[in-house]
Amino acid sequence: MTEHTDPAPPGFRLGWEEWVSLPDLGLPAMKAKVDTGAKTSALHAFDIEPFGPASRPKVRFAVHPIPGREDLSIPCSAAIVDRREVTSSNGDSEWRYVIAAEIVVGGRRWPIDLTLTHRGGMAYRMLLGRQALGEDVIVSPGDSCCQPILSYDVYHSQRVREVAPARVLRIAVLSREPHNYSTARLVAEGEARGHVVEVIDTARCYMLLDALAPDVHYDGARLPRFDAVIPRIGASVTAYGTAVIRQFETIGTYCVNGSEGITASRDKLHAHQILARHRIGMPTTAFAASPKDTGNLISLVGGAPLIVKLLESTQGKGVVLAETTNAASSVISAFRGLKASFLVQRFIKEAAGEDIRCLVVGSKVVAAMKRTGAEGDFRSNLHQGGHAITVKITPQEREIAVRAARAFKLNLAGVDLLRAHDGPRVLEVNSSPGLEGIEKSSGKNIVGLLYDEIEKRVRPLPVPKGRRRR
């Protein structure tokens, strides 16, 4: 029997049905049946799934708090305190997970144990048994709602977000490099917040395509449900990695960066077309397939010096500075001879081998650094020997960085800007930005800010009153 640290006072009266709330679980209003014939209390739950280490097991589940409203689902998680065999009134036995939660009735609150079971066919989504009542509670079996009546309207307002607790999340980091700085930081920060974070090798995932039950499998088993997926998709597995993300999107998992934005950001031509569509300033860029257009291609970007860039270049690789027209023609001919797809771009000389990396999380620039190339190198990439220092950006640079990330629908993006005479120009939008350089140069907990965004996104949303699942 659960000990009552704040027992109801003598004469605290309950009817055979009462309105209750379970704030620990983010359930501000539920109608419960008070049944002194039942020993244990039970909560309607579905998609019940244990997770976490064996030393500190947890369980995640979802609740339909309003009978008949399956379109409204509240995700919950709690520590497992026991697993118990429960026999129902019809004689059926079932092993159930037991959790502890605080119940609030009529302004009074006390801790109770709850068993989790599917009560979808029941008129009451919660059963309050005698173990939860204590000897000082008076139950009037002929009375209904002796305590104040609550309302399901709370689930149709923004207050459902306000009352949602900071529940434990199960998060997947899609990465083929579990020991690099970014992946290791994502795991460490998530676990420090109490979440369960698993690194999943993107290339070892495989998918079941089914209209009724699409799934992602891994190492011979179906992957569990995740609250969120943080993609760290390398350039070499972009096509397969984005297919895996699309599968998670199909299931309904929140993905920090979606497949569409990652795919577009990796194709330099597609990326610049998106920037142009959204009227976002960038260096003048040209593309052609025919070798007969080389001269016109060079003239479109203002002539030499110019940049020749492979469409799928990363970390500064496949990027060449052609300082003369003859050099540009030679580089273009060489790339065409290799059947490589490339574009040419105006060289912004005044940038002097420097660019600004703006790290966007959600709808804010949370940090910025100035990257300077190695001696004699026009490329400022840290992977090419460049170095970084923190920098203060202008309101215009901040606005253009946020607009660029939003254009690709990315919630985590590294937006690279060049400072040109006529204003900032977006050089690239990176959907899998490295976190080491920006965290060390800024001194900020960037990963913590990302988790703030994830926790905000996966909290329950209000549901319109008239909505029904068809």
UniProtKB/TrEMBL annotation:
One of its GO terms (biological process) is translation. Its cofactor is Mg(2+); Mn(2+). Pfam families: RimK (PF08443), Rimk_N (PF18030), Zn_protease (PF05618). Keywords: ATP-binding, Ligase, Magnesium, Manganese, Metal-binding, Nucleotide-binding, Protein biosynthesis, Ribonucleoprotein, Ribosomal protein. The keyword Lipoprotein does not apply. Residues 272-455 form the ATP-grasp domain. One of its GO terms (molecular function) is ATP binding. One of its GO terms (cellular component) is ribosome. It comes from the Bacteria. InterPro entries: Asp_endopeptidase (IPR008503), ATP-grasp (IPR011761), ATP-grasp_RimK-type (IPR013651), ATP_grasp_subdomain_1 (IPR013815), Peptidase_aspartic_dom_sf (IPR021109), Rimk_N (IPR041107), Rp_bS6_RimK/Lys_biosynth_LsyX (IPR004666). In the C-terminal section; belongs to the RimK family. This is Probable alpha-L-glutamate ligase. The gene is rimK.
